[in-house]
Automatic annotation (TrEMBL):
Residues 301-361 form the DprA winged helix domain. GO terms for biological process: DNA-mediated transformation. Belongs to the DprA/Smf family. PANTHER family: PROTEIN SMF. Residues 81-290 form the Smf/DprA SLOG domain. The lineage of its organism: Bacteria, Pseudomonadati, Pseudomonadota, Betaproteobacteria, Burkholderiales. It comes from the Bacteria. Gene3D superfamilies: 3.40.50.450, Winged helix-like DNA-binding domain superfamily/Winged helix DNA-binding domain. Transmembrane segments: none annotated. This is DNA processing protein DprA. It comes from Tepidimonas ignava.
Amino acid sequence: MAPADWEDWLRLMATDGVGPATARRLLAAFGPPGAVLAQSAAALAKVVGEALAQRVRAEPHGWAVLRARTAAWLDQPDHHLLALGDDAYPPALLNTPDPPPLLHVVGDWRALHSPRALAIVGSRHPTAQGSANARAFARALAERGVCVVSGLAAGIDGAAHEGALDGGGPTVAVVGTGLDRVYPARHRALAQRIATQGCLVSEYALGTPPLAPHFPRRNRIIAGLTQGTLVVEAALDSGSLITAEQAMHLGREVFAIPGSIHAPQSRGCHALIRQGAKLVETVQHIEEELQGVWDAPVAPPSAPADEASAHDDADPVLRALGYDPTPLDVLQARCGWDTAALQAHLLTLELDGHVARLPGGLLQRVARG
């Protein structure tokens, strides 16, 4: 992104009270962040209320420091900001109900587009066998060309990343802090390895500390980037069960490795199996369940500019929309997409200039010369 673009995205997301859902409402109403920030307080208030409208208009607290810190960070190799609407933004997240509007990435962002990806999560206090299982499964999957996604946490997460790296990677670490810090600190060397064989990704601004609410939030990204989630070991109160729950809500496969009925670290896995998660003992069990998904053809991360018109014709939502003003419910009936997926895709089309919103809630395709 050009400096003006990333500054607008960063400023909007740095506004107190503007989370992903609010940001998407503003973007849907007014267009790109620059257009949002240019609106009058009265116009903004119609969408988000008067108090938040005033905060959007004002400069966020600490904005000058954050802007300077981010500019310096972006000057470093393999540091990226990916926003909704960018070709580099992971398409898998667009098909989730709560895609983060802005992602910070260190490493190769193309790992976020892996068509064969599996989350491996579990306890921060695993047994020795649990760590060995995570490492072995991740290595075997990586050797088969699967991208392993986890959260860089102590325990199962770290073992999964290490196994994937040993198997040739790539691996993706979704973290709950700003990417200018590593948590836990003992994973600093591991984070450096991940950046060379995959990437680290965060929706949080630079300087964000490891706050407890951030880790359950980041789990939706772990689940969203993958076609399935494997829980290796988990107690009944484990945060990894949140990732599994998110995956279930997204219609993705959930797998669990069974353990001793006497081990607290196995009770979360057993609970998942009772709820319908697939019991797995080998990597082959995962491949059998996901082979059809993993073998499905996928589009490349981006297309050359001279293929833009062909892409327009290939997009199923644009084809369903046609060129006449159309209500959302009619468009949904035509294309058969669920509401969350359709709204997320429409937002991307709006930001790319393919679709415009008209008074009365109508949508219209924009002719491109």
